[in-house]
Amino acid sequence: MKKVFILITVLIFLGNFADAQRWKRTRYEVLFGVALTNLQGDLGGANSDEIYMIDYDLFATRAALDLGLRYKATESVALKLNIIPGLFNGSDKYTTASGRAGRQNTTSTFLLETSVQGEISLIKERLSTRYTFRNMRDFRLKYVNTYLIFGVGGYYYNAKRTSEVYGNASYSGYKLSIPLGIGFKYGINRRFSLNLEYGARRTFDGYIDGY
């Protein structure tokens, strides 16, 4: 049973970059972001059961918020506290896969996740020079902070399923999640940075999709 939900998040970091020559002076950052969500469970999906990461249903994409605090423990390692409320959706009407298309199941899930995440930079942030969108001719990929994401969290969910075949049902609970992903960070100016993250959560509950 596939129990993975995916977040693609765009974050704006607000930090004190007044004297950004030294990374220790930019240790704390407040973050705010918006995310696109996709639930890969027993309901919905695209047209393949073989590889779940490509069984992606664009029609079931929903939205979430991403709030948190980031702390740089070292120049290459950061810790992040996240709170993510979001909506998830899945429907068999969007798939032609045998065994799913005829069930006529639809699920709507509210989910609230809190997590502690670690970030390990593969390409360290360049603090000595901040580039802006007005000076994109100086943009270089080597100036984009690239980092891996891992962590542990918990989530509360409330799932409601409607089905002409199996009837309606609802489930709720609080369960463990394992966040994994990759992120990219680019300094807009001395106070703002733009992040793009792709993250997947391994979950441990069979009813997150209401089935």
Q: Name the shape in a single word.
A: elongated
Number of helices: 0
Weakly predicted, low-confidence segments? 16-21
Mean pLDDT: 80
Radius of gyration: 19 Å
Q: Please outline the major beta sheet.
A: 8 strands, antiparallel, barrel
Widest sheet, order of strands: 1-2-3-4-5-6-7-8
Helix percentage? under 10%
SSE string:
EEEEEEEE
**Structural class of the secondary elements?**
mainly beta
In terms of DSSP E residues, the strand content is over 45%
The span between the termini is: 11 Å
- The total of beta strands comes to 8
Sum up the structure in keywords.
211 residues, mainly beta, eight-stranded antiparallel beta barrel, 8 strands, elongated
Protein model, in words:
The protein has 211 residues and is mostly beta strands. 0% of the residues lie in helices and 57% in strands. The chain has no helices and eight strands. It has an eight-stranded antiparallel β-barrel with strand order 1-2-3-4-5-6-7-8. A hairpin with a 4-residue loop joins β7 and β8 (192-203). It is elongated. It starts with a strand and ends in an 8-residue tail after the last strand. Residues 16-21 have low confidence and may be disordered.
